[in-house]
């Protein structure tokens, strides 16, 4: 879906998923999730990497692996994910070409673009 | 308690009218379309509504490819209708069986009509695809997910009804803009127009349900204010273009190989913006009326690229330009 990814063009290119994860603490806006409890799951392919972000009323935590019942699941290729994060691909293009799949509650999903800016 | 709610007189009257209309005449798979009209060289949608119209890609395409694109883009729609009409019927029958609307038997009676009509629609669209020898399209997972994952049945199914009319209303506006004109084959036009006659009732019923129950379903509005804009944006974008449609046309110009550029050009073209605005205008007026859109949530609409469209509608309101969006009152020739 077009509005949920956490992209805003970062000042420097993030080359790996680890770098993206490390950058999250700087992009986190607790004031935009003071009332939210939600689990966002990422399922990346090639190479495979699963992690989820738990948002709990203004705090967040990243955990490796799969959550049994996430509110939102984002499935994509690692390459596409990095392009999206770095603003090299528009999320809408990833969605319509089938390269990005978003499952779960759309209202929870769209909150994400205000949580990590 | 919702179940104890007394229905307003206006609601009851209109519901009666809708039930009567369905009692009187429903679409027939056999009788209501000119199935014998010729197939050779026809267009199924208007040239100006091809996804590539008004972009450089239109110039790269041959006339024959454009004509084939009009067939494929319409057929993807037909196929999407088949999938969604089946899904909606499943949901609505589940709602009926779940008995959450038991207290309102006339509503349930209308839902039976609704399901019967959707089953016929799906059969007609399938018949049309066979008629033109077009195999089924894979429906994008994202499109199915958005509906499936969000229309879950809660105690009172207002959200499922809301998401359903959003899809029906947007799809109808799109189909009528594409096909309700002399340029396209009489069969394609009849498929759109006959469908529209029943969809107009479905949509007006959905709007009626919103107006009647929105106040009494807890959290409905808060939730709808968050998801409606991104939901609509996804519908519009995913309905505009999909890779399979272009693949099936088999464009010869090498520019068509670069999907990312093709999709970006098409989705952000001025022509598409204008078509999308025509599709969205009456919906936005409805969102403003039922307060799914309020200025407090403008940021969400802006992020979903509806900022200018909202402004356009608000400006009309400021200039006191009144539009009649009641689909039962708009003559089909004007839709
Ligand atoms: Fe239908
Ligand atoms: Fe319908």
Structural class of chain A: alpha+beta
CATH superfamily of chain A: SCP2 sterol-binding domain
How many β strands of chain B by DSSP?
A: 0
Overall average residue pLDDT of chain B: 91
Largest sheet of chain A: 5 strands, mixed
Low-confidence stretches of chain B: none
Ions, cofactors and other ligands present here are: fe (ii) ion
Helix content of chain B: 55-70%
Tell me which CATH architecture of chain B applies here: Orthogonal Bundle
CATH topology (fold) name of chain B: Ribonucleotide Reductase, subunit A
Pfam families (chain B): AurF
Protein name (chain B): Para-aminobenzoate N-oxygenase AurF
Organism (chain B): Arcicella aurantiaca
GO molecular function, one term (chain B): oxidoreductase activity
Topology:
The complex is a heterodimer of chains A (117) and B (335).
Chain A lengths: L16 H11 L9 E9 L3 E8 L2 E6 L7 E6 H8 L5 H6 L3 E5 L1 H10 L2
Chain B lengths: L8 H16 L31 H5 L2 H36 L6 H27 L9 H8 L9 H22 L6 H28 L6 H21 L2 H7 L9 H9 L2 H20 L8 H6 L3 H12 L17
Helix pairs in contact in B: 1-4, 1-7, 3-4, 3-6, 3-9, 4-7, 6-7, 6-8, 6-11, 11-13
The complex binds fe (ii) ion (2 copies).
